[in-house]
Amino acid sequence: MIELYFNLSNRMDTNMKKLTDIPFLKLMASIVIFTPLLAVHAVDYTWQGGDSVYTDVGASGWAGGPPDLGGGDTATIDSGAIEYVAGGDFIIGAGKYFTMNGGSFIQSGSGSWMKIGNAAGGGTVTVGAGASFTLGTAGRLLIGDFGKVGILHIDGGTYNATGALTEVGDGSLVTSILELSGTADANLGTLEIYKGAILAHGGSLDYSGIDFKSGSFTIDGATVTQSAGNLSVNANSDFSLSSGHFSVASGLFVADGGSSSISGGTFTAGQLSFTSDDVIDFAGGVIHLDGSSSEGILTTGGTQYLNFTSGSVGSLFIDNLDESGLTSLLSDGRIRMDGVTNEAFFSATVDGSGYSISAIPEPSALVMVLLGLIPVITFLRRRQS
Predict the structure, then answer these.
(1) 374 pLDDT above the threshold of 80
(2) Which is it for strands 335-337 and 304-308: parallel, antiparallel or unpaired?
(3) Is 58 strand, coil or helix?
(4) How far apart are the C-alpha atoms of 49 and 332, rounded to whole Å?
(5) What is the pLDDT of residue 40?
(6) Which of 71, 152, 296, 311 has the most C-beta neighbours closer than 10 Å?
(7) Taking a C-beta distance cutoff of 8 angstroms, is the pair 133, 160 a contact?
(8) Average pLDDT of the chain to the nearest whole number
(9) Mapping DSSP to helix (H, G, I), strand (E, B) and coil, where does residue 354 land?
(10) Phi first, then psi: what are they for 369, rounded to 5°?
């Protein structure tokens, strides 16, 4: 039995040697044999260098050399003031992570880009409470590239891109994300959303101007301030405010065929402007406009109006609005209730140099309010007796 085994083994060895004499098979055999030796193993790096500078080729602070963030390594910073001297684009990709739990990070040197995501996969940058991430000499941060999902999560920390451009999405079918939560503080310079999503759950987001090509802008707790220019919501975009504060300063909020809704929080703009058939749904919160031009709401004809939805508890305040302007707004269809024009649906009160406009509760809603008061009245009568 043992002799048979050795005979078979020897024959197999002889046959394999014959096969590997063929040049192509020799090449394939070498690939099979040596591929495991050439495989790149991702490494998790933690910054240990305190306040220090590093480059792409030398970084003792990473305890073993700089991480290859575009090639599958991950990096964690817990403390220290870190300056990265760019030798090319700063890339976090291959599905990996750059996490800051503390400390500060800034790029210096050449004006190379920063990118989250590459051909090998997406990437995630997280800036936690007490940490700060600054573009520095990088003129642009691209969140999402090569059709891969990029995520920048400012989770209580600070992101500073003043004077630079922050791009969310690369126009591909995937949606990349800029997310704010906790006590986040983000200063973006200029902002571009191109098949991307802004999720502003908390903290503050400031930017000087915006190019909203496509995607979504959701504010549900943060304070968002646009200091210059207009915000246009086109047919490929949607905007929603449910809590927090949004301000476009003295600029215009332009409804241009997209989806816009305000259900809570405070919304401030110079004007609401409609450039195509569109409706802004208003269910709650406060809208503050400047009525010194076009009574605060500019339309170009067609189906264009601010729509108080059924049961709306929102209040529209228009500064610098006189009585004739108020009458025009309520009678010409620029303000409606569930798509219907009727002055009787609204109440208006003088408020400083303008008017506050709100929807009169429907009869059914008034009945519900009165029914809710019955137990209270009964209780008070019992106490008096």
Answers:
(1) no
(2) parallel
(3) coil
(4) 67
(5) 47
(6) 296
(7) yes
(8) 86
(9) strand
(10) -65, -45
Name the DSSP letter for residue 249. T
Q: pLDDT tens digits for 246-280?
A: 999 789 999 999 999 999 999 999 999 999 999 99
pLDDT category at 382 given cuts 50, 70, 90 is: low
Task: Return phi, psi of residue 355, to 5°.
Answer: -130, 145
How many of the other CB atoms lie within 10 Å of CB of 305? Answer: 23
Please, what sign has the CA dihedral across residues 325, 331, 332, 335? positive
The first and second tokens of residue 131, run together, are 């940490």
Minimum mean pLDDT range among 13-22, 45-54, 125-134, 231-240:
13-22
In angstroms, the CA 85 to CA 56 distance is 8
User: Which tokens sit at 197?
Assistant: 């999503």
Q: Contact at 8 Å (CB) between 169 and 143?
A: yes
What is the bridge-based pairing of β-strands 354-359 and 315-319? antiparallel
Q: Are 216 and 190 in contact (CB under 8 A)?
A: no
CA dihedral 281, 284, 288, 293 (to 10 degrees): 30
Contact at 8 Å (CB) between 203 and 180? yes
- Asked whether the beta carbons of 32 and 39 are under 8 A apart, the reply is no
For residue 304, the cross-strand partners are 278
**3-class state of residue 161 by DSSP:** coil
Identify the sign of the CA torsion 369, 372, 376, 377.
positive
The tally of CA atoms less than 13 A away on the side-chain side of residue 243 is 5
Tokens of 37: 């030796």
CA–CA distance, 44 with 59 (Å, rounded to integer) = 15
Query: Tokens in use for 152?
Result: 């920048």
Residue type, 378: T
The neighbouring-strand residues paired with 179 are 153, 199
Structure-block tokens of residue 98: 């750059």
Compute the radius of gyration of the chain from its Cα atoms.
Answer: 30
DSSP 239: E
What letter represents residue 157's amino acid? G
d(CA 50, CA 60): 11
With beta carbons less than 8 A apart as the criterion, state whether 163 and 133 touch.
no
Smallest CA-to-CA distance from 355 within 337, 371, 335 is with 335
Whats the size of the chain, residue-wise?
385
CA dist., res. 236 & res. 247, Å (int): 22
